[in-house]
Model the fold of this input.
Amino acid sequence: MDVIHGLKGLLSFWSPQKPTLPFSVLFKKFRSILERNNHILELMADMGDKLGGEYVFDRQYVLDISEKVGDLAFKLISDLCVMTQNENVELFIAFERIQHEVQEELAGRRAFPMTRPAVPLDELNGDLNEEVGNKFANLGDIRNTLELPTMDGFVMTTRAFFDFMEANGLLSHIENSLSAVDVKDETAFEAMCDDVRRRILHGTIPKHVLSGMNTMMDNLSRSRQGEPLCFAVRSSAWGEDSEFSFAGQYESVLNVCRKSVPEAYRQVIAGAYGPEAWRYRLHRGYRESETAMAVGCQLMVDAEVSGAMYTYAPLPMEQEAMVISAAWGLGPAVVGGLAESDTFILDRLPPHGVLSTELGHKTSKMVMDRDGGTAWIDVPPDRQESPCLSAEYIQRLAQAAIMIERYYRRPQDVEWAFDTKGNLYILQSRPLNVRPNQPERHMLYIDHETLSAQVLFSGQGTVVQGGVASGKVYIAHGDDDLKDFPYGAILVARYTSPKYSRIMRKARGIITDVGSATGHMATLAREYRVPAVVDTGVATKVLKTGDEVTLDAIQNVVYEGTVKELSRFEITQEEVFEESYEYRLLRRVLKKVNPLNLVDPHSEYFKAARCRTFHDITRFVHEKAVQKLIELSENYQKYHDKTPKRLKSAIPLGLVVIDIDKGTSALPDARSVTVEQIESTPMKAILEGLTESGMWETDPVAVDLGSLMSSFTRTFSSSLARPDEVGRNLAVISNHYMNLHLRLGYHFNILDAYIGDVLNDNYIYFRFLGGVSNLQRRSRRARFIAEVMESYDFRVEVHGDLIVGRLKKMSKQWMIARMKVLGGLIGYTRQLDVSMISDEQIDFHLAEFNRRIQTLKEVSNDAPMCELRPKDADSHSGR
Amino acid sequence: MTPPCANCDQKTQILILDDEPIVCKRLRPAFQKAGYEVETFIDSASAMARIEEKRFDIVITDLKMKGTDGMHFLSRIKEIAPETGVIVITGFATSETAKESFRKGAFDFVAKPFKLSDIIDTVRRLVENRHR
Done:
């Protein structure tokens, strides 16, 4: 901060003592900041929409939109410079840093982001396949995104591999050997393999790699309270478990005690240079530089039963069956085909009934040996012929496997184990190549003449997440607690709502009448890749609970019945959209744009230098601009000739009004204004909402504004809580416009709205920021507010404690009605925190709020909601 | 390969040309799923050669590409097979390029990015139009 003070001193011409710009100019800058702020958030939403799968976009789109966002962020900072008369050097530096990172992504220069030799499983996801190999990148998705159970552990990265190989001179040695050898000469080739493997097994592991490994094991040891650790040490090479499975080509070492992990590590790396694996790579056209072996070290599952599962059985695809192979003890018995196993054929469709069972004669099983490694022991006679999976185990396994399949949109080969306590663990999952049993794996086209399915509706609304889903409809109503939501059903609801995140894992698909593709629910649907379409307008009218339907959320069509051809087409198509370069590029760029790190303006970390994304910059600038606007109104005499007027109202709002154009009927130099004199359409509506809803009066807590405000000076950070600022609420209004800053209790509301006769000009921007309560209550409050707003057609974003809702292009009457609801909501939430003691409170308050607001939200039947409801109204940039 | 004929129940044949491979990769399965037969090309030279040897009912082409640009490709198709319906897709949509495409006989002009359902609708309209 000293640097900034120093800069300020040097740049004394920026000093606020100097004659300054008129209020109207500064206010224009403020409006411009709001507009750019909205525009950036819309572009971010637009980029998010493109990930849903409904749009075709190319690299150029990613380039263009990234440029637009960067451009806007830059102008946003420039606006703030004028408004605050400050150079904001740190903000520009943060901007340049982000901009540079985005440029590097776009230029395809992916910095090797993971320079650490070892990474815990908790940090992995599918994007890290270069750092940790495909197998463990997939396991990262399964563990961290899908939240399916996996054993704890860590991965020695490909970085560690290269460092190890380099330190032992092996990379150049391999290159030289390979160019010298005649690959067709079996003996010479195998001699080369032996030589390389021997060198690896005797190689020295560099210090930093070894210490990375030890740190990981120390951490695990701590979390396991010091119990002895046994690891499964497994290969995770580039390309393994992807298009080419390399199944069974690479090494795994089971039940490795801590002190033997380095040895097992070398052993797994050496496995990459076995003659079969090496030949396989050469045969597939892999270059030597494309060989890298990450190694996963996971705690062992003390497995009672384990095995493999194919989500498509090797049967004709039309049979829609999946298959489980299972045996007592550890996995290699089944996976390596070392012993007899049980086979269960199941229905792919929920509830995944067992179609046939074939029991093996299971005389021996593989177990963990006490001294490390594995051993075979006899199975007790009474268990040799009995099935090793119960109906319940089969059900749990099937649901997990289908979830993984849906995520990757590919049939899966899942390895799994149940421990002695009945916990299921996913050990790994790889795409299952169904080609061998399906010569025409990919149907050339779907013959629509033979496709008898009836289209129920199509082209309605917005696709949030692509994919195909068949299942029974379940209609959820506003007050539904969703306890009875059946596994595998398709959720159909009037509105999108954050509360549907509860059943996201059970649902096959989601369809709503109203709602936005940017809300919380949409984010989660994308996360889990649950096919979802919102804003269809008709879903709850056309569909009813129990109907069997197929949702094609790529082409956006809902069919009657189960259309198996579509599901099969989906899962066998040549390329999965989520695997494409453009998808991954857009996602990576979005990571530099979208996440919000500066959540809490009262935190010491809320500063320019901490901005890591364009969203952070947007947020920071907005916060500073609002602060400045309030300060400007404090010192209005310096800036403008509009006399601020104190609003006289029954409710103590502490509100000062600056009328810039026909916003009141009071005299220009009057120092106060009555509610009746307010002419501004949005202002009138919000005041009506506050008073007429009765939300304020029924509040049990006596309102003593003075004492509430004084609690602010204690709890709010110094950045916002200069005693003379607090307690002055501000509205800048004209006849159709209102910009309102309202701090009530612990809540800070910002409303920016234009409501006039031209529908396309109309918008409401609402921003709610709470504070002071504990985290859980704050998040419940956020969910409550978000649910109310989504149910009134707002596009809602929730970031921690901050809620932003946007609504636009609705007719005047509808806008006014919604403004009144917001008034009610502001009143209602004022003292909400104290009562948010449980999740049930959210539903209670929703019901209560809706009951009380009933009379206010009614719009006469002949008032149109909007003249046009263009399908793509949301995708237009600008307001 | 059997030549197309108007009266037998042959699938509608579509050729797609776009030098961004992702566009072809996404459009091919989408049209196949909708019941069409599709060939895709990412370089205009091969597409150019292909239209000389096979008639397509519908051609979907990008405008701005390396090598022969889409406008030239459009003109050539209309020379060889005037009955072919052409849909132009482009990321650089201006009213001038749109007008020029229509003047050269394009059926429709679609700006990228677009929804899959929109382009399929456009093709359906085109097919209906041709049968009229």
In short: Chain A touches chain B through 33 residues (CB under 8 Å). Residues 23-50 of chain A form the longest helix (28 residues).
